[in-house]
Automatic annotation (TrEMBL):
Keywords: Cytoplasm, Isomerase, Porphyrin biosynthesis, Pyridoxal phosphate. The modification N6-(pyridoxal phosphate)lysine is found at K270. The gene is hemL. One of its GO terms (cellular component) is cytoplasm. It catalyses: (S)-4-amino-5-oxopentanoate = 5-aminolevulinate. Pathway: Porphyrin-containing compound metabolism; protoporphyrin-IX biosynthesis; 5-aminolevulinate from L-glutamyl-tRNA(Glu): step 2/2. The keyword Ligase does not apply. Its cofactor is pyridoxal 5'-phosphate. Belongs to the class-III pyridoxal-phosphate-dependent aminotransferase family. HemL subfamily. This is Glutamate-1-semialdehyde 2,1-aminomutase.
Length: 430
């Protein structure tokens, strides 16, 4: 029994399932989760001292590489002055100003401590603003674990719940609570139009992952997005871009800058906190001013705008704003995916790849899927084998075929070469 097994056994005694977030438990792929001891750049080392190339990067945040020296220094300096005040700081203003500058659809922003809080608060705000109850989400999208969003949800829910039913994907969520949540297939223009014809004047908000990353990576069509923007505008519904994953990861201005769509509200998280518990939601001033203490929509948090997280976030945003950062990250991610594709082709394995900025998806299928239904038809058994063959060679992929992958600026050519060499071996053994 190795140290990881020993730790997993020990963890399961005091932590449900041995993990503090379900997808870490390797439920889809089987085997023992790696317990991380330390990380640097594109690598982490587990409790047994084995080095892995990390292609999850904390599920997105570590875009500047693990333990980036500049971010570490900023955090150290902030920590010297206390970890939290529960009172406003100048750093929060700087971060808010920076976010508004980088994502122009955001005129005002409120900071929270997790992506779940961001989407939950954005929905409450949208409902308060419109005076309507109904929300629309899309199949396979995950927006955190707020009750009303746990219907046909992606990410970990796809590996342990039946997310095909129009019922809560989680126990403990009353049917009554999700009756105000309508779920539509991603990329289905017709379904969207039909709902708006019938119930458009009841829709408070439509929330979407603008590049879905919680059912592997699925991209929206241009027509789908423009219809979405048009219908929500026509019917006075709030369009919420959940950019917790894509914000500051697919491009400096997020998915909305690539798609040239202006949402009413945007949710951010992950990269904006540089790996610290930090997230935000923001958008039109007209809507944001409905929030307490100005308006009657209540939202609060003891640790919101935490100074140490703000320092990590500000430094990370500074790093990713440097010239060439996103060109380099995007190029490296594309190179990684074409390396995978070539290796699969050489081995005669049906395989498709996609990427945007520092986010990627690969599929054991002949073509890139465009819906949740299509993702479920990919060869999950082949994925599981591939995952373990890569892990055995020191490459750490997301332990589920329903998650996107993430690179960082430290995934340089040498690192890519090592991953692609491992992939060649893995495809040959499949
Ligand atoms: C698109 C999206 N929204 C919301 C969340 C929830 O964020 P958090 O895990 O920080 O609560 C996540 C990730 O978990 C996500 O990927
Ligand atoms: N897919 C999730 C977020 O992006 C994975 C993170 C988690 O829930 O632990």
């Amino acid at each position: 029994m190795g140290k990881n097994d020993i730790l997993f056994e020990r963890a399961q005694k005091t932590i449900p399932g041995g993990v503090n977030s379900p997808v870490r438990a390797f439920r889809q792929v089987g085997g023992t989760p790696r317990f991380v001891a330390k990380a640097k750049g594109p690598y982490f080392w587990d409790a047994e001292g084995t080095r892995y190339i990390d292609l999850i990067m904390s599920w997105g945040p570590m875009i500047a590489g693990h333990a980036n020296p500049e971010v570490v220094e900023a955090v150290k300096q902030a920590a010297e002055t206390s970890f939290s005040y529960g009172a406003p700081t100048e750093g929060e203003i700087e971060l808010a100003e920076r976010i508004c500058q980088l994502v122009p659809s955001i005129e005002q922003v409120r900071m929270v401590s997790s992506g779940t809080e961001a989407t939950m608060s954005a929905l409450r705000l949208a409902r308060g603003h419109t005076g309507r109850d109904l929300i629309i989400k899309f199949e396979g999208c995950y927006h955190g674990h707020a009750d009303s969003l746990l219907v046909k949800a992606g990410s970990g829910l796809l590996t342990f719940a039946d997310s095909t039913q129009n019922a809560p994907s989680s126990g403990g969520v009353p049917q009554d609570l999700v009756k105000h949540t309508l779920v539509l297939p991603y990329n289905d223009v017709q379904a969207l139009k039909e709902v708006f014809v019938k119930q458009g004047d009841q829709v408070a908000a439509v929330i979407i992952e603008p590049f879905a990353g919680n059912m592997n990576l699925i991209k929206p069509s241009k027509e789908f997005l423009s219809t979405l923007r048009q219908l929500t505008s026509e019917h006075g519904s709030v369009l919420i871009y959940d950019e917790v994953m894509t914000g500051f990861r697919v491009a400096l201005g997020g998915a909305q800058s690539l798609q040239v769509i202006t949402p009413d509200l945007t949710c951010l998280g992950k990269v904006m906190g540089g790996g610290m518990p930090m997230a935000a939601f923001g958008g039109k001033k007209e809507i944001m001013s409905k929030l307490a203490p100005l308006g009657n929509v209540y939202q609060a948090g003891t640790l919101s705008g935490n100074p140490v997280a703000v320092a990590a976030g500000l430094k990370t945003l500074e790093i990713i704003s440097r010239e060439g950062f996103f060109d380099c990250l995007t190029g490296q991610t594309e190179k990684l995916m074409s390396g995978f594709k070539l290796a699969a082709d050489e081995a005669g394995v049906p395989f498709a790849v996609d990427s945007v900025g520092g986010m990627f998806g690969f599929y054991f299928a002949n073509e890139v899927p465009t819906s949740f239904e299509a993702v479920t038809k990919t060869d999950i058994e082949a994925f599981k084998k591939f995952f373990h063959l890569m892990l055995d060679q020191g490459v750490y992929l997301a332990p589920s075929a329903y998650e996107a992958g993430f690179t960082s600026i430290t995934h340089d050519n040498g690192v890519l070469e090592e991953i692609i060499t491992a992939a060649k071996t893995a495809f040959k053994k499949l």
